Amino acid sequence: MLNDDQNAAIQSLRRRYEQDGIQLSGQVKVSPSGNAQFGVRGGGSIGGDNLQVEAASLVDGLHYTEVMPQIRDRKRAGELDQALALTLKCVAACERESDTYRRVKGSKWAMAPAYTTEAAIIYRKQGRLDEEVAILERYMAHAANPRRGTVADRLVKAKALRDKKAAH
What's the predicted TM-score (pTM) here? Predict the structure, then answer.
């Protein structure tokens, strides 16, 4: 018997496989280690995704990668507070996914920088430079292999801008 988190993870995986054009049968097998295998119409299977990792990556029942269109829509509508709230949920989901992957698989998982960068952009638009620096530092502290040239470069610039504003 699967728990609610596992069921939500299965639905998320199913939705993403089907969006990729994979025709699934109704069959899902979950191994004792929590890995899901989905039956494919016409035979065979696809998967191997760990349900704990998948469940950790959900934001309001959606994988965090499925939330970016909502964030962009809210930004376009000028609803920055709502966009930021969703973005911060995605940042937390990325951190949970990374932590869970490390715990379950015993190896590092590169955390997606896009949501941290998006939050930093919104903070800057709102003039909240301390929060911009804080979210970027949070990523740098949490990420297994922070990408030099993206978050790291933005952090240097954000600190300089914050310090310049503080000096005036």
Answer: 0.83
